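Example 3.2
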Amino acid sequence: MNIRIKIIDAIRTCAIFLMIFFHLSYDLASFNYVTINFKLNPFWFYLPRLIVTLFFLSAGASLYLAHGVGALHWIKFFKRQLQLLFFSLMISLATYFIFPQTWIYFGTLHSIFVCSFLTLPLLKFPRLAFILGILMLIPPLFFGWRYPWPMLHHLSMDYIPALPWLGVMWIGIYLGQILYRYQNKLQKVESLIPPFASFMGKHSLIIYLMHQPVLYGFLFLVSSLR
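Structure, written as tokens:
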């Protein structure tokens, strides 16, 4: 069953815009065009976490629409997983050679890849997924407790452990069910979503992969010509 809800594309598009803004700001700071304290400034601390939250919510909702509404399409699922695995490995390889001190060994795509497998058992139980997702998020959000997850000694540019982010994807399953159930009543809302949001939502992976090399490469070129 091929179901596409524009609101999910809009959520993903919002995440893309915020991600481009964040990485552009980070790159500008890296080339000393601006001064930003990413560690101590609350805005810059929470912005990337909001971005990841939007990506994981939309990923969970999309999984529900693709495999939770009807039968689980194994070929389609594994094709998507192989794609995620391939690009995750490419990101790790590229950052290992370009940024050896901060290379990405378990970033956003790596985490979505793992969490997608762990989400399968709950696709048919959206309410249970929502409850378990909330329960999983309570310890880190309110008590500062960190779930154990493999971590290398170096500080990675993008480290997104599957725990507790799995909880956000589980909540996304329930979001997918709600949007699917009330999609007819949401048509007026969806009519307000511009076409480019749907386009970007459909092509979010390629934008995710290409935006940073383009931004960083452009700034590197401009800086080398100064």
